[in-house]
Amino acid sequence: MKKWYQTPQVAVIWTIARVWLGLQWLQAGWGKITGGFDAGGFLQGAIAKAGGDHPAVQGWYADFLQNVAAPNIDLFNVLIPWGETLVGLGLILGAATIPALIAAAFMNLNFLLAGTTSTNPILYTVAVVLLFAGSGATYWGVDRFAVPYLKAAINKKAVANKA
């Protein structure tokens, strides 16, 4: 039996929230792709926020930024805008919704850990709420049809491999 928050009627609310969240990510990512993007300044600013009496960035995270992200800035300059764009498209279409929500929450968490508040707490909260909504968040989207199809195809292949 479906829970009340997974019904088609309530799924309309989750769909509106999911599409809104997707538009936020698509706009952010596409703006970076078309406008040129370099995370170097952002990383240096986050690393600088790790000092002082009340650091906005924890030391362990600043170490990660300095020792992993900064030396691989060219990779992050591709991953961030394309990740944001793909998350946005997935959420708008309702395709790979759960992985897109996990990726969205993960990116927001990293932006928060880097000392950037902005809209990140709101976007993070919406992503987590939609994750808890489960199938309610995927009801009005591509996943509603794609997931059962993929499950059937995987089960069919598993049965064929056992024979």
Tell me about this structure.
It is a single chain. By secondary structure, the protein is mainly α. 76% of the residues lie in helices and 0% in strands. It contains 8 helices and no strands. It starts with 7 loop residues before the first helix and ends with a helix.
Descriptors:
single chain, 163 residues, 0% strand
Instruction: Give, in order, the helices and strands.
Output: HHHHHHHH
* Number of DSSP E strands: 0
Class from helix and strand fractions = mainly alpha
Mean pLDDT: 94
- Please outline the major beta sheet: none
| C-alpha-based Rg, rounded | 19 Å
What's the SSE blueprint?
Elements: H1 8-35, H2 40-48, H3 59-69, H4 73-93, H5 97-113, H6 120-133, H7 135-138, H8 143-162
